[in-house]
Write a structure and sequence with these properties.
Its main location: endoplasmic reticulum. Helices cover 76% and strands 0% of the residues. With 434 residues, the protein is mostly helical. The chain has a single domain, classed as Up-down Bundle (Na+/H+ antiporter like fold), CATH 1.20.1530. Helix 19 runs antiparallel to helix 21. The longest helix has 45 residues.
């Protein structure tokens, strides 16, 4: 297969993403303001009470309806018990990407020495890639291009969407379990340092903005509890110790599980897209549910058709939202350039090279099935830009929002070049092994 044909096949989907993203940035301009700051914040904070405009409600519909329908519908349609056994390596592959990315993020922190409250953001941006929106757009689009080694376009698109949906669900779980807590620990450590040294470390505004994370709709303590703690700070540890000793074993287990749930932020872990993935898995794997809903002769096939119809609106809507979120980076100033450069090198050079070694090495050991499309998906998971939800996480803690917007601006701007080149190379790799 000629390299030029591979380059064209790889560049067309990326150009589609670029055009839709540019349109989203245009709609977010102050003169247009269809996807302005208020609407984006309404979606990112996932709070129906913050904004009531038509467009903010549209963004919430994308978050709560379109994306879950896209993921759940495609997983239920293509995932079976047999295919789940074949796809066992995908969660492991994404875990490897997070581990290698974390190591690269640690090196970026070591070399560029960003402020303490940004170190978790750097690690999170290097570790957590956009394993949802980008893959859902690019991979099925690659199937439709002529000259690819993936066979019939309709069959390829069906399985490509299933792989991308599975990747999105697993990536969301890892992001909220790992990246969220990395940022949280970094912010809390910086806050403690600010408390010890006053305003000598960083900005004093950091401490004030992080004391109450943005995005929580309810206070962590009631007014009565807060007053009690304020007047009994010295006796509080002893009281808690005595209370724990009086609890039964079952109550202690419940208490510790509650603490773990609050620490890991399980509420964010079970986002609508994750819940939809779980439903899709259940419907696809359980035989009688699959016969009931999936297929042209299924009694409840109208549910599948309606779900897929809703999901088709997610791809263009998500692309517009990405473009709207990137506009903020153009207006930001004062971000450390070496930090941004380090993240770009880590995500677009070091991580894809590591991914090639991991995937190809395991394929030679016959631990991964020899399927060109599946191999392409595994490889591209190492070459995507940082997860857009990193911006949501910084908004929740009120720390690093400006820096995150600049990181997203540059990484997504350069993604048009990087993804095209890496997709071309990955297509050549998988086609040469066919």
């Amino acid at each position: 297969m000629e390299l030029l044909n591979l380059f064209v096949a790889a560049s067309m989907p990326v150009l589609k993403v670029l055009l839709l993203t540019a349109l989203g940035s245009f709609l977010a301009l102050d003169t247009i303001d269809l996807l302005g700051e208020d609407a984006r914040n309404s979606m990112n904070r996932a709070s129906l009470s913050t904004q009531n405009s038509i467009f903010s409600n549209f963004l919430l519909i994308v978050f709560y309806v379109f994306s879950p329908a896209l993921i759940g519908g495609n997983l239920a349609n293509t995932i079976t018990y047999e295919s789940m056994i074949k796809l066992w390596f995908m969660p492991v592959n994404i875990l490897f990407a997070f581990i290698v990315g974390s190591g690269l993020g640690w090196m970026v922190n070591l070399l560029t020495k960003p402020p303490p409250h940004l170190r978790g953001l750097v690690i999170g941006c290097c570790a957590a890639g956009n394993l949802g929106n980008i893959l859902i757009i690019i991979i099925p689009a690659v199937c439709k291009e002529s000259g690819t080694p993936f066979g019939a376009a309709d069959v390829c698109s069906t399985y490509a969407m299933a792989y991308a949906s599975l990747s999105m669900a697993i990536g969301a779980i890892y992001l909220w379990v790992y990246a969220y807590n990395v940022v949280r620990i970094s912010v809390e450590a910086s806050l403690k340092q600010v408390g010890k040294n006053g305003s000598s470390v960083g900005n004093s505004s950091i401490a004030s903005s992080m004391t109450e994370p943005i995005g929580f709709s309810e206070p962590l303590l009631s007014q009565v509890d807060a007053v009690t703690i304020e007047h009994n700070t010295e006796a509080l540890p002893l009281a808690r110790f005595e209370k724990k000793n009086q609890l039964s074993l079952t109550d202690k287990i419940k208490h510790y599980m509650l603490e773990i749930s609050q620490t890991l932020n399980l509420k964010k872990l079970f986002a609508p897209s994750t819940n939809a993935a779980i439903v899709g898995f259940v419907v696809g794997v359980v035989p009688w549910l699959r016969k009931l809903m999936i297929g042209d002769t299924a009694p409840l096939r109208v549910i599948e058709d309606s779900t897929i119809l809703l999901g088709e609106g997610a791809i263009p809507a998500l692309s517009l939202i990405i473009g709207a979120n990137l506009l903020r980076g153009l207006r930001a100033t004062g971000t450390q350039k070496s930090m941004v450069f380090g993240i770009v090198v880590a995500r677009y050079i070091a991580l894809p090279l590591a991914g090639i070694g991991i995937v190809k090495g395991l394929m030679r050991l016959n631990l991964v099935k020899a399927d060109p499309l599946y191999e392409f998906v595994l490889l591209i998971q190492y070459a995507v830009p940082p997860a857009m939800n990193m911006g949501t996480i910084t908004q929740m803690f009120g720390s690093g929002e400006t820096e995150c917007s600049v990181i997203m601006l540059w990484t997504y701007s350069l993604a048009s070049i990087s993804l095209t080149l890496w997709c071309t190379f990955f297509l050549w790799l998988v086609s040469s092994s066919v």
